[in-house]
Amino acid sequence: MTYTYYPGCSLHATGVAYDKSTKAVFEKLGVGLQELEDWNCCGATSYTSVKKTVAYAISARNLALAEKTGHDVIAPCSACFYVLNKTKTRMTEQPELREQVNASLAEAGLEAKMTVPVRKPLEVLINDIGLDTIASLQTHSISDFRPACYYGCQIVRPYGAIDEDPENPVSMERLFEALGAECVDYPPKVRCCGGMLIATFEEVATQLCEDLVDWAVERGANCIVTVCPLCQANLDLLNLSGNGTRTKIPILYFTQLIGLALGSSPEEVGLEHGLVPVNVEAPRLVAEAGTAPATARGGAA
Amino acid sequence: MKTVADPRSGPPAPGVLTKSEKELRKAFLSETNRIPGGGRVDQCIQCGTCTASCPVSYAMDYTPRQLIAMFRAGGLEELLASRTIWVCASCYQCTTRCPAEIQITDLFYAFRRIAIDRGIFPKRFPSHVFSESFVAQVKKYGRNYETGMLLRYFLRTKPFGLLGWSHAGVALVRRGRIPILPEKIEGIDGLRRIIAKAESFDLPQESAERQKVTDAVGYGAIGGAA
């Protein structure tokens, strides 16, 4: 089994731990991930705020390249996942748009036929590989982790939730429970972290993130597990703020936790990139919330 | 905050649109009609599900429900100058819950494009520069170089805001999360040709229309139609 891997820009920068841990998990599972050659930015929500056809065209370049590989695409970043699927949907619905986009792609000798499925790793792990298989490969306990499973927006809306309830997804909980971690009940699991408002309207994004973290802490979580590099970065940056008044809590990618359960080392899943340290004692793993960060403290995040 | 229902804030007389509003409305319809379901904006029952579902409606000058009402009442210029369309974080909760199946998030993108095309922005709220900085990175490298984008955005909008970010920046650099150099794709020339061609589709049908509209409304004078 092999998939075409579309990391997206964030996984080569602030989300580097997501890149490492996704690769580590698939390697442990013996499933191939081939990075899409010469992929470009999906355009996110910013490009479509400026130019419409261009936004679809640059996104479709990736689809055109991916179609040549013949494998399903895995896009871990929620924004990439959503944008690539939106491009597929809109180009299928609108023949005129499809013509224009393909006329643009033709400038580089490409054509997007809209044939390649774009999938999120969470769904692939559950539907293609299966909870039983993953659990059978577990080598390390993660029972000391009490995660708040946080899905955020664009992985469930509007294109992500074909396989589950967009208001109350449970695939992460099922996964971690199969691996022996007890998830806390986390009502705001599909609320928005504010996304790019962290740069354009910081007060609002900070408020949303504070709510998300406080909710998890109140519920007794000792880590928040995310599926999106922007959610991770926004929540993690909050760990730097508050001048010591805020509870610090590790913000993990779900692939980091699975990787630890499957026997990957903390370095292999990129734990050192988080702003709050997670203490891991092999073979038993211990997550500690409320520990002081090793690096900078205070200041606005 | 002015209320939408207040006739003093709306058209010169109830039910009568100004000439510029009429022109804007026409340009807007040509844009929204190209969004699947865009025409459904007329199906809005003003139920408020969008506003209630929106995690950031508390920070908007007009709520999403009010914005739809403004559009239908002919308040397009005011709508384009609202913070609301730029405060939206693209979480799609309103869109997936709307009982009238209006693609609210995508409508907001359409509003943003028209606002950028015409240079109509909310006062002291230059969020559009963020999107433009993003686009500039993609054109240059083929990928979004986050560091370059944020630097460009902050230098253009709130240079002193960078100071507040220095702690976070240092922490992220120490944790190996900020690459020093941008990644440039090999096929950058091809990508630029794709972008140039696609831009030609974004221009004509609007721009033929827009040139006229811009002149009629007088936005050309304020340098909007760049």
H/E series of chain B: HHHHHHHHHHHHH
Rg value of chain A: 19 Å
Biggest interface, chains and residues, is: A-B, 76 and 67 residues
Q: What is the helix fraction of residues of chain B, given as a range?
A: 55-70%
Model description:
- The complex is a heterodimer of chains A (301) and B (226).
- Chain A is globular, with a radius of gyration of 19 Å.
- Helices cover 41% and strands 7% of the residues of chain A.
- In chain A, helix 3 packs across helix 5 and helix 4 crosses helix 5 (95-105).
- The model of chain A is unreliable at 290-301 (pLDDT under 50).
- Chain A has twelve helices and seven strands.
- In chain A, helix 1 links the parallel strand 1 and strand 2 (32-35).
- Chain A has 301 residues and is of the alpha/beta class.
- In chain A, the strands form two sheets. A four-stranded parallel sheet of chain A has the order 2-1-3-4, sandwiched between helices.
- Chain B is an all-alpha fold and 226 residues long.
- Chain B contains 13 helices and no strands.
- Chain B has helices at residues 19-32, 49-53, 64-73, 76-80, 84-87, 93-97, 104-118, 128-141, 146-157, 161-164, 166-174, 188-202, 204-217.
- Chain B starts with 18 loop residues before the first helix and ends in a 9-residue tail after the last helix.
- At the A-B interface, helix 2, helix 3, helix 5, helix 9 and helix 10 of A face helix 6, helix 7, helix 8, helix 9 and helix 11 of B.
List keywords for this structure.
heterodimer, A: alpha/beta, four-stranded parallel β-sheet, three-stranded parallel β-sheet, 12 helices, disordered C terminus, B: about 230 residues, about 55% helix
